[in-house]
Design a protein that fits this description.
The complex is a heterotrimer of chains A (189), B (282) and C (379). By secondary structure, chain A is an alpha/beta fold. Chain A contains six helices and seven strands. Chain C has two domains: 180 residues, Thiamin diphosphate (ThDP)-binding fold, Pyr/PP domains (Rossmann fold); 113 residues, Rossmann fold. The radius of gyration of chain C is 21 Å and the shape is globular. Classes of the chains: A alpha/beta (189), B alpha/beta (282), C alpha/beta (379). Chains A and C meet through helix 1 and strand 2 of A and strand 6, strand 9 and helix 10 of C.
C-alpha cells in the first residue's frame, strides 16, 4: 500500500488544523483515503501544534505520522518535535520569517515568505493557506481544483475571498519555484 | 381504625401499606412531613401514576419508598440531579424531591444551588432534623452551634446554614419554610410549592428525637415539637423575626419568590426554534 | 446528518451514532478531550426533539442521565478520566437498579489531572472496577472513527437489551481523528428498544424470565414501582435476607453470562497460524495491524487479536486465536492493564508480555514490530 505523510507544524492559532482539514477534504474529494490528526499543548494559542495527514489509496491502517514526507513549518516551535520523524528526501517548506533555524539533513528545503505574502494579501492569518497552495502546487498530492473546492467548502464566509486569493498565491509560488530552481537545492527568496 | 377528614384525604390511599410498619423512630418528625405532603398531593388531585418521588440517602431518603407512586431512591446527595434528568425527559410527570439537611446541603450542596439557578419545575422538600440520623448522629450543615453530636463531642463549633437564604440567593423560584408542628400550614406550603411552575425549595423543620434530642437533652418528642418555632435553634438561622418578645422566632411560610421563567419550558421553546430553522443547529 | 459519506472527527461520530441509536437525552460536563461530544449533542438533540443539559458537575450529569433513562428515554453522557472517576458512584446505581445508560470515556493520561490533551488507554480497569462492589457492565473499545459511530449505536442496543451501563472507551487520538465514514441511512439500522412491563398482575420489577433480564417499568404506566440502589428483592424493595440476596445477586451478576455471543465483539487478523499473537485495542490495535503486516512480510507468523468488547472480555475467542501462539504481546498506552486479563486467560499455555507507554505518546508500529521480531527470535 502506498501512503504519504504530511505535517503542518507551528504554533497554536496559526490555522494549521484548518490547513490539515482542507487538505484532508481535498484528497478525499480526489478519491483517496485519509486520516487527519492533531497534537497540541493545552493552550489555545502559542504552544506547539501539529496537524497531520496520512493519505493512502485504501483504508489507512495506522492513522498517525511516523515518517513525514512533507513538512510545512510556519513557526520555529514546530520544528524540533518533527525533526526526528522526517522520511529520507522529505520536502520541507518553512516560513522564511518565522523559522530562522529550519531542519537539516536529507531533505529538500524551501524557505518561503508565506507570512509576508499573506500580509500583502491582507492578513497574516492567511499564511496557512498560502503554504497549503504552495504544497499542493509543488507536490501534486491532490488536484489543485480539489483543494480549491475544499477551501470554498471549508472556509467561513468572511475569510473566503482572502483564502481563495491566498491559495492562488500559493500555487503561483509553487510555479515560480518549479520554473526557477531544480529540485534538491536550498532556495532562499 | 380508618382515618378520615372533611377533604376526603385518606392517607392509606397513598401509602404502600404492605411495607408497614415503617422504619422511622418513635417521635421522628419525618412521618408528619410525609403526611402533609400526601395531603397536599391529594388536595391538588395529583394522580399517583404521574407522581415521581426522588430521594437521596439518609432518614429522609427512606421516606419516599412508602409512597405508592413512582419512587426513586438514588445516591447520596444526588436526588436533585437525578430529578433534573427525569423532569427534563418527562415534563408530564410531577416530580418531587425528598431530601435531608446532609443530603441536600452538604454532599448535595452543589446540586441544590444549581437547581435553584436553573428553576426547573421541581418541588424540593428538605427535611431538616439538624443531624445525620441514619449514620448515628453526626454533625450536619444545619446543626446549631454548641449542640452535641457524635462528631462534636464538646459541642458544635461550626456555624450553620440558613438553607432558605441560600436557596433564595441562588435564585429558587419559590422558597418557604414550615414546621411539622403546624401540619395544616405545612400542607398549605407544600401545595404552594407543588403549584408553583418552577423550582420550589421547602424546608421542613423536623425533629430527630431519638438521637439528636436525647443527646442534647431536648426533651421528649412533644417538647421538641413545641419548641420548633421558638427558641430551639435561633442561632442557626439568619432568617428570623425581630420581635420584642420573641426576638429569635423562626420565620415560616413563603419566604421568597423570584419570578423567573421555568427552565424546561424555556429549553423546549429554544429547541423548537432551532428545529424549525432558527439559529444554531448543525 | 444525512446518510452517505461524511468526514467526521471521532467525537462527532460518537454524537451522531448516539442520535442514530435513538438517544434523546444527554447530560454532560466539559472535559478535555471529550467536550466535542457534548457540543455536538447540544446542536443535534433539539433537531430530533431531544434534550441536552450541561450539568453543574460530572456527578450530576451521570445522575441526570439515570433520571432521564428511568423516565424511559435513551440517555448518555461523555467524559474523560477524572470525570469518569466522579461518575462511578452513579454508574454503580445504574448497575444495581438496572437503568440503561451509555457513557463515552475519551481516555487520557493519569493519575489525577495527568495530561489532558494527550492520549492514553488508562481506564481499562477503572471501567471494569471503578465503582465499588461487584457489578455487571459492558465496555467497548472502538479503533476508528467509523467504529466509534457504530459501536456507540451498539452500546445503546446492548444497554437497552441487557439493562446495564455500557461504556464506549476510546482515546484522544481517534477522538480528534478526522476520517471519512459511511453514515447509514435512517431506518437501515437494527435498533433495540427497551422491553417494557406489560401490566400483568403479579408483575415484579426485578423478576426475570429465562434470559435473566427483567422487563422495565416507566413512570406513568401504572406500575408505580420502587427503584433503589439498596440491595433489593424481585419486588424492588430493600432486603437483607441472605437467601433472597444470594438469589437476586446471582441473577444480577450473572445476567450477561448467557449472552456472550451477542455482547463479545472482536476481530482476528492472521491468527490461525500465528506464533506471535498481538492483543491490542483502540489506537494501539491500528499500530499493531501495521506491525503484524510488516512482520508477515518478513516471514514471521504474527497475528492480531483485537477485542472490541473489553468487558466482558471475549475469553473463548482469545483462547482460539492464541491456539498456535508461543508468545502473546499486549501493547497498551498504560502501565499494563488489559494484559492482566490476557495473562489470566493464556498464561498456562504461552508467555504473555506487555508493551507499555505512559508518556502521552501513541505506541508506534515500529515499536510493536521490533518486539514481535524479538519474541519470534526467542521462541
Amino acid at each position: 500500500m502506498s501512503k504519504l505523510e504530511i505535517r503542518f507544524a507551528g504554533s497554536g492559532g496559526q490555522g494549521l488544523i484548518l490547513s490539515g482539514r482542507l487538505l484532508f477534504q481535498a484528497v478525499v474529494l480526489d478519491g483517496k483515503r485519509a486520516a487527519q490528526s492533531q497534537s497540541y499543548e493545552p493552550t489555545s494559542r502559542g504552544g506547539f501544534c501539529n496537524s497531520d495527514l496520512v493519505v493512502a489509496d485504501r483504508e489507512v491502517d495506522y492513522p498517525l505520522v511516523t515518517a513525514i514526507d512533507y513538512l510545512i513549518a510556519l513557526d520555529q516551535i514546530g520544528v524540533a518535535p518533527s525533526a526526528a520523524m522526517m522520511a529520507p528526501g522529505a520536502l520541507v517548506l518553512t516560513d522564511a520569517r518565522l523559522v530562522p533555524e529550519p531542519p537539516e539533513g536529507d531533505i529538500t528545503l524551501h524557505q518561503l515568505p508565506f507570512t509576508d505574502e499573506a500580509i500583502a494579501l491582507g492578513s497574516h492569518r492567511a499564511a496557512n493557506v498560502v503554504a497549503l497552495g504552495t504544497l499542493v502546487g509543488l507536490s501534486g498530492i491532490c488536484d489543485r481544483q480539489a483543494v480549491g473546492e475544499a477551501v470554498r467548502e471549508g472556509t467561513p464566509k468572511a475569510f473566503l475571498d482572502l483564502n481563495l486569493e491566498a491559495l492562488r498565491r500559493g500555487f503561483e509560488m509553487a510555479d515560480e519555484l518549479d520554473q526557477g530552481e531544480p529540485d534538491g537545492k536550498v532556495v532562499r527568496l | 381504625m380508618t382515618e378520615t377528614n372533611p377533604a376526603g384525604f385518606e392517607i392509606r390511599d397513598y401509602l404502600r401499606l404492605d411495607l408497614m410498619p415503617h422504619f422511622m423512630c418513635p417521635g421522628c418528625g419525618h412521618g408528619i412531613a410525609l403526611r402533609a405532603l400526601l395531603w397536599a398531593v391529594h388536595e391538588l388531585g395529583i394522580e399517583k401514576d404521574e407522581l415521581a418521588i426522588v430521594s437521596g440517602i439518609g432518614c429522609s431518603g427512606r421516606v419516599g419508598g412508602y409512597i405508592d407512586a413512582n419512587t426513586y431512591h438514588v445516591t447520596h446527595g444526588r436526588p436533585l440531579a437525578f430529578a433534573t434528568g427525569l423532569k427534563l425527559a418527562r415534563p408530564d410527570l410531577k416530580v418531587i424531591v425528598i431530601t435531608g439537611d446532609g443530603d441536600c446541603l452538604a454532599i448535595g450542596g452543589n446540586h441544590l444551588i444549581h437547581a435553584c439557578r436553573r428553576n426547573l419545575d421541581l418541588t424540593c422538600l428538605m427535611l431538616n432534623n439538624e443531624v445525620y440520623g441514619m449514620t448515628g448522629g453526626q454533625v450536619s450543615p444545619t446543626t446549631a452551634e454548641t449542640r452535641l453530636t457524635t462528631t462534636t463531642p464538646a459541642g458544635n463549633t461550626e456555624p450553620a446554614f440558613d438553607a432558605c437564604q441560600l436557596a433564595e440567593a441562588a435564585g429558587a423560584g419559590l422558597v418557604g419554610r414550615e414546621v411539622t408542628m403546624q401540619t395544616p400550614a405545612l400542607r398549605n406550603l407544600i401545595k404552594q410549592g407543588l403549584e408553583y411552575p418552577g423550582f420550589s425549595f421547602l424546608e421542613v423543620i423536623s425533629d430527630c428525637t431519638e438521637i439528636y434530642g436525647r443527646k442534647n437533652d431536648l426533651g421528649e418528642s412533644a417538647e421538641m415539637v413545641l419548641s420548633q418555632k421558638s427558641d430551639m435553634r435561633p442561632e442557626a438561622y439568619g432568617n428570623v423575626a425581630d420581635q420584642p418578645f420573641r426576638p429569635n422566632r423562626l420565620l415560616t411560610g413563603v419566604l421568597a419568590r423570584n419570578e423567573r421563567p421555568e427552565y424546561g419550558e424555556t429549553y423546549r421553546r429554544h429547541a423548537d426554534g432551532v428545529a424549525n430553522g432558527g439559529k444554531a443547529g448543525a | 446528518m444525512t446518510a452517505g459519506m461524511a468526514n467526521l472527527h471521532g467525537n462527532h461520530a460518537c454524537a451522531l451514532g448516539a442520535i442514530a441509536a435513538g438517544c434523546r437525552f444527554f447530560a454532560g460536563y466539559p472535559i478535555t478531550p471529550s467536550s466535542e461530544i457534548a457540543e455536538r449533542m447540544s446542536r443535534e438533540l433539539p433537531l430530533v426533539g431531544g434534550t441536552f443539559v450541561q450539568m453543574e458537575d460530572e456527578i450530576a450529569s451521570m445522575a441526570a442521565v439515570l433520571g432521564a433513562s428511568a423516565g424511559g428515554v435513551k440517555s448518555m453522557t461523555a467524559t474523560s478520566g477524572p470525570g469518569f472517576s466522579l461518575k462511578q458512584e452513579n454508574i454503580g446505581l445504574a448497575s444495581m437498579a438496572e437503568i440503561p445508560c451509555v457513557i463515552a470515556n475519551v481516555m487520557r493520561g493519569g493519575p489525577s489531572t495527568g495530561m489532558p490533551t494527550r492520549p492514553a488507554q488508562s481506564d481499562i480497569m477503572q471501567a471494569r472496577w471503578g465503582s465499588h462492589g461487584d457489578h455487571p457492565l459492558i465496555a467497548l473499545a472502538p479503533a476508528s472513527v467509523k467504529e466509534i459511530h457504530d459501536q456507540t449505536i451498539r452500546a445503546f442496543n446492548l444497554s437497552e437489551r441487557y439493562r446495564v451501563p455500557v461504556m464506549v472507551l476510546f482515546d484522544q487520538v481517534i477522538a480528534h481523528l478526522l476520517e471519512p465514514i459511511e453514515l447509514p441511512a435512517a431506518g437501515s439500522l437494527d435498533l433495540v428498544e427497551r422491553r417494557w412491563a406489560n401490566g400483568d398482575d403479579g408483575y415484579q420489577p426485578y423478576a426475570a424470565g429465562a434470559d435473566g433480564i427483567p422487563a422495565m417499568t416507566r413512570p406513568g404506566d401504572g406500575h408505580r414501582t420502587h427503584t433503589t440502589g439498596l440491595t433489593h428483592a424481585e419486588d424492588g424493595f430493600p432486603t437483607q435476607d441472605p437467601d433472597t440476596v444470594t438469589r437476586v445477586m446471582d441473577r444480577l451478576l450473572g445476567k450477561l453470562d448467557q449472552h456472550g455471543q451477542d455482547i463479545e465483539a472482536f476481530e482476528c487478523h492472521d491468527t490461525k497460524d500465528a506464533e506471535v499473537l498481538v492483543v491490542a485495542y483502540g489506537i494501539s490495535a491500528r499500530a499493531a495491524r501495521r506491525a503484524v503486516r510488516q512482520a508477515r512480510e518478513r516471514g514471521i507468523a504474527a497475528g492480531l487479536f483485537r477485542p472490541i468488547t473489553l468487558w466482558p472480555f471475549p475469553e473463548q475467542a482469545l483462547r482460539t486465536a492464541a491456539d498456535q501462539a508461543r508468545s502473546v504481546l499486549v501493547p497498551e498506552m498504560n502501565a499494563g492493564q488489559l494484559v492482566l486479563e490476557v495473562e489470566r486467560i493464556c498464561r498456562d499455555e504461552v508467555r504473555v508480555a506487555g508493551l507499555n507507554r505512559v508518556d502521552g505518546q501513541p505506541i508506534e508500529p515500529s515499536q510493536i514490530a521490533r518486539r514481535i521480531e524479538e519474541m519470534a527470535a526467542d521462541d
